[in-house]
């Protein structure tokens, strides 16, 4: 049998932002009907390379060929018209538009000179159904959970009839059932001859879905495996250049003093109901549950980001039930949100500015902030948290993991009493996760109460003194560390 020609060929692709070199001469071929896993630590260049292929970023040099012809898209629309679709790690939906409008944005179906909404909704509904999502396509996107929005992004890609799909962390917000539905769709796309570039930090997924693995490090392709069932240790060693296992640090024993008390907290929309728990000084309190359990809604209300219908929040015995994020922050409660690009950082502002925005009271002198003082303040925390970037660099130029470190830095600079982390390692590589876990334990050792919400069951089990499990907006139970395991958590989560 003759080897098929690649649908996409990259040769010596380079990209620089000023003096910062992001890609260093990358060569890559993608063949029809295969899944190529593109792996590497945050900042390795995976997303930049994907953005070059999908027309979002122009390379500094190098050449690409698509179906044997020269290929140099200057916009995502050009790439889409050629047959290249991309699902970004960070959601790109327009909240004020309907699901169907988002699925077909920029390529509305027309009939008789008018937008054919019926046809768009029917095709969008078909894509949603393939992914097991039962939501009317006429519904507005605003207010949908992150997981549902991710599924809509995937449904959007499924309607493109693309020859190449780039999936950047497509399962980061999905549960096990949703992930398996996606994998079944990928198998169907492969059978139709679609090539797929699959980016994920969930290495256990790679064995299930990948035909080939390409590993990047520091902007270069460093290794390639001609199969997907490569041992995790081998992949990680290629990614980080050293042997590394995913390990959780020792968890400190909390004090007996209670810092935070939540009593009967209920949401106006009933997304969570009658939630009560207490967090001790220096305790790591995990919150687990399946998609739609109400975890994110709960912690957003707890930190003043969303309204509360009833219930109380007490800090050191005093009622401080927050009605706004500013109230929560003044009382020493901060939230590191699930969606860092939408809610965590200002992408077009510098790292220094992002860190400074949460600490203006520390930086202001007679109503003024000097650039020198701001940069010196930011430099301390850039160094402390290991951010790979300079104070004056735009946050939007950083990898997802480094953006997360900036979000952590800006809030922890305030020395809070309660830190709420919603999906703290979402989209963060195995090398960087250990530093986040170590940071959580440092906070606990210093007497800070930490609440960790995570879809990663291994993670929430590995970092928590106790775990509250939520199911369908209700509090299903609280487990001590010695009683918490995969089975006990999932039994409560499926009540």
List its traits.
495 residues, alpha/beta, Rossmann fold, 2 domains, 6-stranded mixed sheet, 18 helices, 34% helix, 24% strand, ATP-binding, ATP hydrolysis activity
Question: How would you sum up this structure, described in words?
Answer:
- Keywords: ATP-binding, Cell membrane, Membrane, Nucleotide-binding, Repeat, Sugar transport, Translocase, Transport.
- This is Sugar ABC transporter.
- Helix 4 (117-130) crosses helix 5 (146-158) and helix 14 packs across helix 15 (400-412).
- The termini are far apart.
- It is built from 18 helices and 22 strands.
- It folds into 2 domains: 8-240, Rossmann fold (3-Layer(aba) Sandwich); 258-332 and 416-493, 3-Layer(aba) Sandwich (Rossmann fold), CATH 3.40.50.
- It has helices at 46-53, 76-82, 99-103, 117-130, 146-158, 176-191, 203-209, 232-240, 295-302, 325-330, 340-344, 351-357, 360-363, 371-385, 400-412, 430-445, 457-463, 486-493, and strands spanning 8-17, 20-30, 35-39, 61-66, 69-70, 84-87, 110-111, 114-115, 164-168, 195-199, 212-217, 220-225, 258-266, 275-280, 284-289, 310-315, 318-319, 333-336, 418-422, 449-453, 466-471, 474-480.
- It has 495 residues and is an alpha/beta fold.
- A 6-stranded mixed sheet has the order 6-9-10-3-11-12, with helices on both faces. It has a 6-stranded mixed sheet with strand order 18-19-20-15-21-22, sandwiched between helices.
- It is globular and about 70 Å long.
- Helix content is 34%, strand content 24%.
- A hairpin with a 2-residue loop joins strand 16 and strand 17.
- The model has no long low-confidence stretch (mean pLDDT 87).
